[in-house]
Amino acid sequence: MYDQPASPSCPYRATGLTIPPMLPPLGRLLAVDWGDVRIGLALSDEIQVIATPLETLVRRPGKRFPMPRFLELVAQHAPVGIVVGLPLTADGGEGDSAAGAREIADAIGRRTGLPLDFWDERMSTARALAAIREQGGSTRRRKEDVDALAAAVVLQHYLEARRRREGER
To answer: Is 155 part of a structural domain of the chain?
Structure first.
């Protein structure tokens, strides 16, 4: 499994070795924006250019990740890989939320068998809220929409960074 350090210049790290992620370059990617209560999901198009909000899963306090619904969505949309938003601290470190995201990523990887990658999700919810307001929308009573949109923000940034990296080769 790959992790993402704070440095954007070296976005992948696996137990001390720098290894690029093995997510296929074509096919849909599914993004997971982890939260203690709500988990936003987004999906890319087949050529991995555009990310679209998919759904928000809700986890009741003290309950597990809603894996059955997640697996239904995986079966329905057949992604080729999963991008998990990693909630880093303001200084780029990992706290309790990042540990939770890594735990769920591990469970997702075991249950789906799909390759995983992590991506910094700092400010994704703030960007999603700003996008809604920019379009003249209200964020009141739209928590589920915001979380799925935040997952789309994470995935879109991932896709764009990956294209930039590939363009540099």
So the answer is: yes
Q: Biggest alpha carbon distance in the chain?
A: 46
Rounded to an integer, what is the distance from CA 3 to the centroid of its chain? 13
Q: Tell which phi-psi region holds residue 27, choosing left (phi > 0), alpha (psi between -120 and 50) or beta.
A: left
Instruction: Assign 144 a pLDDT band (cuts: 50, 70, 90).
Output: low
- Between 88 and 12, the higher pLDDT residue: 88
Q: How far apart are CA 54 and CA 75, in angstroms?
A: 14
Other CB atoms closer than 10 Å to residue 102's CB: what's the count? 17
Task: Order the strands of the 38-44 sheet from edge to edge.
Answer: 51-58, 38-44, 29-33, 81-86, 116-120
Asked if the structure places residue 137 within a domain, the reply is yes
Query: From CA 29, how far away is CA 51, in angstroms rounded?
Result: 9
Q: Which helix H or strand E contains 76, and what residues bound it? A: helix 67-77
- What pLDDT shows up at residue 120? 86
For position 51, which CATH number holds? 3.30.420.140
Give, in degrees to the nearest 5, the angle at Cα 117 between 38 and 159: 90
CB count within 10 Å of CB 160 equals 12
**CA-to-CA distance for 157 and 5, rounded, in angstroms?**
16
